[in-house]
Design a protein that fits this description.
The chain has one domain. A three-stranded antiparallel sheet has the order 1-2-3. It has three helices and three strands; from the N terminus they run αβαββα.
Length: about 100
């Protein structure tokens, strides 16, 4: 798969991200908080990602969660395209060699 084919496959997909999103429960610390008592804490979302060799996480505001989920989906699609690139490159080279003889 050459650069142009990769660009065509990626065109129009939107922002891409690599990592994971998790929902956690965090206590707020207020005495008598109903949510902390009944549900074990308030909903919060964390984005986990690699920063060089280190794993990191960031708080994700609730209104950004849908956009991040979409970006993670696009990132998985992009990864599939890139993984297909190696075998496609080798197969194309074999076809050229078999057909044209170098």
């Amino acid at each position: 798969m050459d650069r142009q084919e990769i660009e065509e496959a990626m065109r129009g997909l939107g922002p891409a991200a690599k990592g994971s999103l998790s929902e956690v429960r965090k206590p707020c610390g207020r005495k008598g908080c109903r949510i902390c008592g009944e549900e074990g804490g308030h909903r919060a979302f964390l984005f986990h990602f690699a920063d060089g060799k280190r794993r990191r996480c960031m708080y994700v505001p609730p209104d950004l969660v849908p956009a991040l989920r979409d970006a993670l989906r696009v990132g998985r699609l992009a990864e599939e395209v890139l993984h297909a690139g190696g075998p496609a490159l080798i197969l194309a080279a074999r076809r050229r060699k078999a057909g044209g003889g170098a």
